[in-house]
């Protein structure tokens, strides 16, 4: 309440959006850092890393050795430098987390926190629903559901005749979506009346 009075509605709204953006990147960075730490004793640097990934991407070796993580040939072929791939993965996943955070915040200030949680749970279920849906519905949903884009190995590839958007398209869509959500949040905060007594 005191921050809102001190900064004004618009600036306070931008601060809330900034917290969501910072939290999104921090969350993804911590997950990747913990993954590195968990695998640190088995990691080593060598130039032949791509040969194994190419083999897994182009053959059925992954199924034979029960490798559970699909490897995208296009991902490797389009990005020769591993750090570029890591950078794109961090950016896309952070933007997806940011989208969900901003969407939850917008819904919570328009309706309630309960509605925000329910809609977010629906977004987490959408990827499962897409797998079971008709091909035509899959082609539509894979273009518009951000949580489907978190499957990095599918980006830019065709699975079961369903073409996933490419890296650049996904990044542009997520940026536009986050900007629109931010605009709606600022507009809603500017128009809404706060319950000062309930806050106390």
Description of the structure:
With about 200 residues, the protein is mainly alpha-helical. Helix content is about 70%, strand content about 0%. A two-stranded antiparallel ribbon has the order 1-2. α2 (about 10-40) runs antiparallel to α9 and α6 (about 80-110) packs parallel to α9. The protein starts with a helix and ends with a helix. The model has no long low-confidence stretch (mean pLDDT about 80).
Index terms:
mainly alpha, single chain, 200 residues
Produce the secondary structure layout.
Elements: H1 2-7, H2 9-39, H3 49-58, H4 61-64, H5 73-78, H6 82-110, H7 113-132, H8 135-144, E1 158-159, E2 162-163, H9 167-191, H10 196-199
Antiparallel strand pairs: 1-2
Average predicted confidence as pLDDT: 81
Main sheet: strands, sense, barrel: 2 strands, antiparallel
Q: Percent of residues in beta strands?
A: under 5%
Cα-to-Cα separation, first versus last residue: 8 Å
Helical content stands at over 70%
Rg, please? 20 Å
In short:
This protein is mainly α and 200 residues long.
């Amino acid at each position: 309440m005191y921050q809102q009075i001190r900064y004004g509605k618009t600036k306070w709204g931008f601060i809330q959006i900034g917290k969501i953006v910072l939290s999104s990147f921090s969350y993804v960075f911590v997950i990747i850092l913990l993954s590195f730490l968990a695998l640190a004793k088995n990691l080593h640097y060598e130039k032949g890393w791509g040969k194994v990934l190419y083999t897994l991407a182009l053959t059925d070796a992954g199924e034979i050795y029960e490798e559970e993580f699909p490897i995208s040939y296009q991902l490797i072929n389009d990005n020769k430098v591993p750090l570029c791939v890591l950078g794109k993965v961090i950016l896309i996943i952070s933007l997806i987390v940011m989208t969900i955070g901003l969407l939850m915040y917008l819904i919570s200030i328009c309706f309630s926190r309960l509605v925000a949680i329910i809609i977010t749970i629906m977004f987490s279920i959408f990827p499962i629903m897409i797998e079971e849906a008709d091909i035509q519905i899959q082609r539509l949903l894979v273009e518009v559901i951000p949580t489907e884009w978190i499957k990095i190995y599918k980006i830019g590839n065709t699975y079961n005749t369903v073409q996933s958007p490419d890296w650049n398209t996904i990044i542009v869509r997520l940026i536009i979506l986050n900007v629109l959500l931010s605009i709606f949040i600022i507009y809603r905060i500017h128009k809404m009346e706060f319950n000062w007594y309930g806050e106390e």
